[in-house]
């Protein structure tokens, strides 16, 4: 059975070709609180798209609607060709969602966990190859609690890759990681995009969004207040006359840290 919505089934899907995600007029309220206030955006195939915004802006609610985990009150969203607002179950086999590492059973090894996730999708997978994809092959027989922070995040991405998703959702993937592990994770995200997948990234780190994202949407109070490539948004700010009060030095403390401790990952 095809899981892709046929154009005749949905007016929106006829406009969704070339786009991994099409969102139109999405709304969600919790009681009297409007969490998502009529947002619309499109994410191109193979794009790394960032969702930025202060705490409580409505990012998680938006992403959970796209993942089919939460029902919108109004509007439409097509993800990987599936109308998630009509059929939230069908999208789940087409997307990957990175879970927090604390969510994993600790009595199973990494290779057993990958096999368990694959079984949930009714798939047989080459678990060592998936672990190799995220540079964890040597940890195949380890348990999650023995991994470093960066390894845990890479493992959670590995579990999100078992169904070869068209769209991968990464929720603050580098929070708490050291500078070397953050860069390592950025490289992994870029290589996953090279495999032909689309990535939706939620982050509070602007340097991360600037490095990784082709485009970002800035959400505040449930509305998109800006959406473009990072460089275009920066140029627009400068064109409005913005200037930093203090001229930046050509290096920062992170450069000092990386120069002192090296760029190599610290995870034996
Ligand atoms: P953060 O950066 O802190 O993760 P966010 O941008 O992801 O924030 P959301 O989690 O989507 O924001 O929350 C948007 C608003 O909706 C917030 O005011 C939040 O308190 C509220 N909210 C979220 N989930 C619920 C819920 N299940 N019930 C009631 N209110 C909720």
Describe this structure in words.
With 268 residues, the protein is α/β, with parallel strands linked by helices. The protein has nine helices and ten strands. It has a six-stranded mixed β-sheet, with helices on both faces. Helix 6 links the parallel strand 7 and strand 8 (198-202). Helix 3 (110-120) crosses helix 4 (127-133). The chain is globular. Bound molecules: adenosine-5'-triphosphate.
List keywords for this structure.
268 residues; alpha/beta; 9 helices; 32% helix
Shape: globular
Count the E strands: 10
Strand order across the biggest sheet?
6-7-8-3-9-10
Bound molecules: adenosine-5'-triphosphate
Our count of helices gives 9
State the end-to-end distance: 45 Å
User: What's the SSE pattern?
Assistant: HEEEHEEEHHHEHEHEEHH
Residue runs with pLDDT of under 50 for 5 or more positions: 1-10
Structural class from helices and strands?
A: alpha/beta
Q: What portion of residues is helical?
A: 25-40%
């Amino acid at each position: 059975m095809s899981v892709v919505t046929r154009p005749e089934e949905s007016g929106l899907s006829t406009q969704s070709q070339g786009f991994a995600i099409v969102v139109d007029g999405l709304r969600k309220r919790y009681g009297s609180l409007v969490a998502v206030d009529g947002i619309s955006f499109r994410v191109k195939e193979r794009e790394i798209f960032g969702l930025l915004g202060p705490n409580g802006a409505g990012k998680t609610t938006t992403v959970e609607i796209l993942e089919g985990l939460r029902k919108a009150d109004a509007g439409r969203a097509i993800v990987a060709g599936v109308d998630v607002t009509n059929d939230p179950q069908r999208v789940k086999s087409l997307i990957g969602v990175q879970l927090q590492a604390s969510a994993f059973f600790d009595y199973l090894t990494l290779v057993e966990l990958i096999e368990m996730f694959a079984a949930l999708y009714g798939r047989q997978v080459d678990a060592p190859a998936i672990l190799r994809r995220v540079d964890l092959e040597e940890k195949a027989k380890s348990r999650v609690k023995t991994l470093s922070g960066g390894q845990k995040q890479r493992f959670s991405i590995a579990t999100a890759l078992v169904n070869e998703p068209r769209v991968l959702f990464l929720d603050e993937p580098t929070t708490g990681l050291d500078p070397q592990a953050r860069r390592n994770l950025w490289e992994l995200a870029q290589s996953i995009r090279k495999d032909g997948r689309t990535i939706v990234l939620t982050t509070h780190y602007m340097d991360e969004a600037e490095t990784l994202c082709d485009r970002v949407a800035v959400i505040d109070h449930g509305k998109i207040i800006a959406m473009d490539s990072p460089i275009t948004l920066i140029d627009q700010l400068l064109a409005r006359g913005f200037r930093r009060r203090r001229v930046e030095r050509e290096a920062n403390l992170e450069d000092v840290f990386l120069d002192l401790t090296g760029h190599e990952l610290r995870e034996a």
